[in-house]
TrEMBL record:
Gene3D superfamilies attached to this UniProt entry: Arfaptin homology (AH) domain/BAR domain, Pleckstrin-homology domain (PH domain)/Phosphotyrosine-binding domain (PTB), Rho GTPase activation protein, SH3 Domains
Gene, per the UniProt record: ARHGAP10
Compositionally biased tracts (Low complexity): 633-650
PROSITE patterns: PH_DOMAIN, RHOGAP, SH3
Protein name in UniProt: Rho GTPase-activating protein 10
InterPro entries attached to this UniProt entry: AH/BAR_dom_sf, BAR_dom, GRAF2_SH3, GRAF_fam, PH-like_dom_sf, PH_domain, PH_GRAF, Rho_GTPase_activation_prot
Length: 734
């Protein structure tokens, strides 16, 4: 699990857990700042210290290898995983170049140092300044509230009203500042992934020319470089889409914060000041608590929390509510007070709300006498239903727009990404949705309507549907395969789910995706690749039912679903799904009872060769600089080559523990001593390849010419004329 999303709606409550999440984000940015600072220093050493170049390169390589990007949410896209893995790939390559001991070019300053310094100064530095302002306003806000709540109720009404206005204005200012700070924190976490890796990519590209074999190495590295550039561009594109959605949500919440409160398990929650009585000469004190009440169970929880002391959290206290009574100012010299009596706690508790409105809300929730007509936690406000429907008129509109686009603008650059003028789009939609004027609108031959107006109208119509085309019900199920599994299993899962859609939804989706496939086929002219179309139509076809930051962070996975639909349109819409395919929520990459296959990220395959370079670049751990004969590869690297070695993490079985028992009861030592002489093996478990260098097979498959592989825990063999990797503990020696 990565960093938790910072919800804008939590800015209003400013709960202790919200502050904990903010501190986690701040700590991660500080870690990144220190790392970049150290990396810049290492880069300068490469230029200035020729004699210590080898040491500097190793340090630089170690810095890259040890750093890992954090992500917001519960999963990464394939592109993000590739970006995450790219630092280790860079590290591996740099360590192998150490023997060359060539002097790196002075261009390192321009391609690496300056961009990192600029990012650290302009981006991370800006966040630091925002943090200072946020901390200062936190201190000011809660100090003013303390002072305000200590005002005597006997003061003149005009004085009290003026003080109330001042506090409310200050709270509003603090709330807006909190929104901006939260937005900036999350933006920088996403931005750093591509703004940091791009300078690294430029540095490596420039470095090749300063080695004797630079030209050849650069040519071999070119494919990986292009893959990574695509990963970076895809991540950047998704970032832009996500940022606009986040800003839109932030503005909505800024305008109506109370209408966007998140659904909660508690009937009421928020801060209250609790009176703590002391022995005779000391009077009493008021301590701020974060309080939560569950009406069904009549359970009241409260926990002391002080923002100004660095967010110190006290012990939680839970009791059962008996009754709640409003306190009037003639009985206590404080406003907004009420008493609570507990069934399992002696004596009443006197509490003070921040305002009269909040006191009324608490009284309603706790069963007091004065109650409002609305709930403390409002239900999620459903989206207003527009006039757009999946009826005969709707299909006519979509087909009409698609026909016009394919006739007039299929090669227009930025198709569907360039938006039309809002007033023209609305006018076109109004005419198309009117039975009287729909047939009169000529989109294919009339110059009155620009292509960008037509594409914007199509997207707007789909967004105006009461429910997204891919439905709220299946939204979560569509997201699941996009977050995990092999490419083939993802396609199968999406195929399965599309056929669970209502018939009209599936028909409309078929029409649209067929069109988008045609658009992507003209990407050389219109620049709208499958990835770009995914960014545009992901939020349109799969909008979430509740608008939250967490939902927006899943936009990138919605985009992946749309990409899969476009790339596999014929299979998904023209063939029936596999009826034996499991529900997506039950997908597993391992067969039943099969030995577990562990991913590269878990550290089990620490010596994976970088096959894209077509060179023997296998690296040894720093603790074992001299490989033994047993570790030396015995077969051609060409048999392991892959056109995209970082596109997905390569899974594998557990490492070669010599005491690990195989399927036939033998140990790894037995296997190693006999496999080269036998050269045949039979599959005891089915396996689906998750990388182009692996073999897929069913139980009982017979492999020829089986040999040990340089990949720990893997074998090489031939099946049906194809040679590739086989999980060692999935087969039995014949």
């Amino acid at each position: 699990m990565g960093l938790q999303p910072l919800e804008f709606s939590d800015c209003y409550l400013d709960s202790p857990w919200f502050r904990e999440r903010i501190r986690a984000h701040e700590a991660e940015l500080e870690r990144t700042n220190k790392f970049i600072k150290e990396l810049i220093k290492d880069g300068k050493n490469l230029i200035a210290a020729t004699k210590s170049l080898s040491v500097a390169q190793r340090k630089f390589a170690h810095s890259l290898r040890d750093f890992k990007f954090e992500f917001i949410g519960d999963a990464e896209t394939d592109d993000e995983r590739c970006i995450d893995a790219s630092l280790r790939e860079f590290s591996n390559f740099l360590k192998n170049l150490e023997e060359q001991r060539e002097i790196m070019a002075l261009s390192v300053t321009e391609t690496l140092i300056k961009p990192l310094e600029k990012f650290r100064k302009e981006q991370l530095g800006a966040v630091k300044e925002e943090k200072k302002k946020f901390d200062k306003e936190t201190e000011k806000n809660y100090s003013l509230i303390d002072k305000h709540l200590n005002l005597s109720a006997k003061k003149k009404d005009s004085h009290l009203q003026e003080a109330d206005i001042q506090v409310e204005q200050n709270r509003q200012h603090f709330y807006e500042l909190s929104l901006e700070y939260v937005c900036k924190l999350q933006e920088i976490q996403e931005r750093k992934k591509f703004e940091f890796v791009e300078p690294m990519l430029s540095f490596f590209q420039g470095m090749f020319t300063f080695y004797h074999q630079g030209h050849e190495l650069a040519k071999d590295f070119n494919h990986y470089k292009m893959e990574l550039q695509i990963n970076i561009q895809n991540t950047r594109n998704r970032f832009e889409g996500t940022r606009s959605e986040v800003e839109e949500l932030m503005n909505k919440i800024r305008q109506n914060p109370k209408d966007h409160k998140r659904a909660s398990q508690f009937t009421a929650e928020g801060y209250l000041y609790v009176q703590e009585k002391r022995p005779a000469p000391f009077g009493s004190s008021w301590v701020k608590h974060y309080c939560m009440y569950r009406k069904a169970a009549k359970k009241f929880n409260m926990i002391p929390f002080e923002h100004r002391s660095g967010g110190k959290l006290g012990d939680v206290e839970v009791f059962s509510l008996k009754e709640c009574t409003k306190r009037h100012t003639d009985s206590i010299d404080r406003r907004f007070c009420f008493d609570i009596e507990a069934a399992d706690r002696p004596g009443p508790l006197t509490m003070q709300a921040f305002s009269e409105e909040e006191r009324k809300q608490w009284l309603e929730a706790l069963g007091g006498k004065e109650a409002l007509s609305h709930n403390f936690n409002r239900a999620i406000i459903p989206r207003p239903e527009g006039s757009a429907q999946l009826d005969k008129m709707g299909f006519t509109i979509i087909r009409k727009c698609i026909s016009a686009v394919e006739t007039r603008g299929i090669n227009d650059q930025g198709l569907y990404r360039v938006v039309g003028v809002s007033s023209k789009v609305q006018r076109l939609l109004s005419m198309l949705m009117d039975v009287k004027t729909c047939n009169e609108v000529d989109l294919e031959n009339s110059a009155d309507w620009e292509v960008k107006t037509i594409t914007s109208a199509l997207k707007q119509y789909l967004r105006s549907l009461p429910e997204p085309l891919m439905t709220y019900e299946l939204h979560g199920e569509f997201i699941v395969p996009a977050k995990s599994g092999s490419p083939e299993s993802r396609v199968n899962a999406i195929h399965f789910l599309v056929h669970k859609l209502p018939e009209k939804n599936k028909e409309m989706l078929d029409i649209l995706v067929k069109h988008l496939t045609n658009v992507s086929n003209h990407s050389k002219q219109n620049l709208m690749t499958v990835a770009n179309l995914g960014v545009v139509f992901g939020p349109t076809l799969m909008r979430p039912q509740e608008e939250t930051v967490a939902a927006i962070m899943d936009l990138k996975f919605q985009n992946i679903v749309v990409e899969i639909l476009i790339e596999n349109h014929e299979k998904i819409f023209r063939t029936p799904p596999d009826t034996t395919f499991p529900e997506p929520t039950c997908l597993s990459s391992s067969p039943p009872n099969a030995p577990p296959r562990q991913s590269k990220r878990q550290g089990q395959r620490t010596k994976r060769p970088v096959a894209v370079y077509n060179l023997c670049l296998e690296l040894e751990d720093s603790d074992n600089p001299n490989p033994s004969k047993e570790d030396t590869p015995t077969s051609s690297l060409d048999s392991l080559s892959s056109p995209s070695p970082v596109t997905a993490a390569v899974p594998g079985p557990p490492g070669p523990d010599k005491n690990h028992l195989l399927a036939d009861g033998g140990s790894f030592g037995d296997w190693a001593s006999t496999v080269l002489s036998s050269r045949k093996a039979r599959a005891v478990y089915p396996c689906e390849a998750e990388h182009s260098s692996e073999l897929s097979f069913e139980i009982g498959a017979i492999f020829e010419d089986v040999q040990t592989s340089r990949e720990p825990g893997w074998l090489e063999g031939t099946l049906n004329g194809k040679r590739g990797l086989i999980p060692q503990n999935y087969v039995k020696l014949l």
